[in-house]
Amino acid sequence: MKDKLRIYVFGASGDLAKRKTFPALFELFSRGLLNDVELVGYARTEMSDEEFRDVLSEFLTCRYVPGESCQTYMDDFLALCTYEHGMYDADSLDKAFSKYEHVENNIFYMALPPVVYVSAVDAIHGAECFEYCQSSLKLVLEKPFGHSLASSEDLQDSLSSYFVEEQFYRIDHYLGKELVQNILVLRFANIFFEPLWNSEYIERVDIFWKETLSLHGRAGYFDKYGIIKDVIQNHLIQILALISIERIAELSTDNVSCAKLKLLDSVKKLTKNNAVVGQYIGNGQVPGYLEEPGVSEKSKTPTYARVNLEIENERWKGVPFTITAGKGLDETVTKVVVSFKRVKPIFKDMCECQSVPNKLVIQIQPEPHIYLGICNKVPGEGFKLSKKRLNFLYSEGYNEQIPDAYASLILDVIKGDKNMFVGIEELQASWRIFDDFLAESESNDGDMPVAYTFGANEKEVF
């Protein structure tokens, strides 16, 4: 079956698969981008095909098909989904999948805790039923890719004993978001940005990731990692890399990955003097972090961090890059703010807009848009100035739906396009930036995070 694609989703009974992986696959199907495919769920939980389909149906939504056709699309999609159960060892996989006909293209999506990766990959490599496709199959891995530089390297050493690097797709769903991917287009397809994209014209760059949410049952996971490992070391450092890489000759996996690696290698290691970490306390309605089920009462795990990073190259010499991330704050937003240097005022009628820099804001969520803050003349006599925005709102600029990030990246896996996936060398480079700081702050001698009240404005606290 030369052209047929089979996607195996390991961990298919878990939240990630139900809430992200299968809805993303359904989006691709409803957009006509998933043809001649079989979707096979696999997990330890015992379920029939029908029970599995009933579970999935609760999480599928129709964004790309008319309302009256929604159920038909769902029924057709669910008919492609089958389910097997068993342990993550070769014998169990052989028992579950030996009955399946061989197909040319095979993708294994690991919707699993990373601690299971090695045993699952070992099982795939050792199962007789998959001998025929060992050299061509693809494996999708979810973050976190380790919890330190050493653990990341150990994980990679183990995985690379089974398959080559080209077969691994480390998925960071932020790299699938339209506004993150558009950073490359904004910089390299518009001639007026690149000449200004350096320390001569840019004063600072700020990256923000804020949530109003608490842990919502994720305390068991989050307390092992904290905000730096959960968000900054992966999602936000990737955004920083795309914002600051050197110009590439053409869009290719090698060019993008090499440019990001070179950039990350030039970022100075984070030190205690360049970071502030915090941990939220209760506000009378929402319990504090230490009161969350599954969190130790002595936990030092930060729910907030602000880190100041320096890039040691000619382009960015002296330009501070600040990443701020936190849960339990007063707003939910992810955005990049590029502040340009101030111009020398020449207008007699002084106003605030001459004393603040022009800013380019790339807001990734919740409402995707790009705007440039400028000084503008107020209509009338003289030269009275005011701050205004040149604003591009995605919902107004495009009629079509913005694709789901997971759907975009899964489609890239199918195509074999690794431009927006994390290479092993850049992963290790990003760990090197934070590794020493994390080890020090997590030690017995490390300071407790600064307390802030849930729902606080972080500017009033830190």
Could you explain how this protein is built, in words?
α5 (117-126) links the parallel β4 (105-110) and β5. A 9-stranded mixed beta sheet has the order 14-13-12-11-7-10-9-8-15. The longest helix has 26 residues, at 219-244. The protein has 462 residues and is an alpha/beta fold. The protein is built from 14 helices and 15 strands. α8 (219-244) packs across α9. The chain has 2 domains: 5-142, NAD(P)-binding Rossmann-like Domain (Rossmann fold, 3-Layer(aba) Sandwich), CATH 3.40.50; 175-401 and 423-461, Dihydrodipicolinate Reductase, domain 2 (2-Layer Sandwich).
In short:
With 462 residues, this protein is an alpha/beta fold. The chain is 34% helix and 22% strand.
Going by helix content, strand content and strand pairing, the class is alpha/beta
Total strand count, please? 15
First-last Cα distance: 60 Å
Overall shape: it is: globular
Name the strands of the widest sheet in spatial order.
14-13-12-11-7-10-9-8-15
Question: Rg, please?
Answer: 24 Å
Number of helices: 14
What is the overall pLDDT average? Answer: 92
Give short descriptive properties of this protein.
462 residues; alpha/beta; Rossmann fold; Dihydrodipicolinate Reductase, domain 2; 2 domains; 9-stranded mixed sheet; 6-stranded parallel sheet; 14 helices; 15 strands; 34% helix; 22% strand
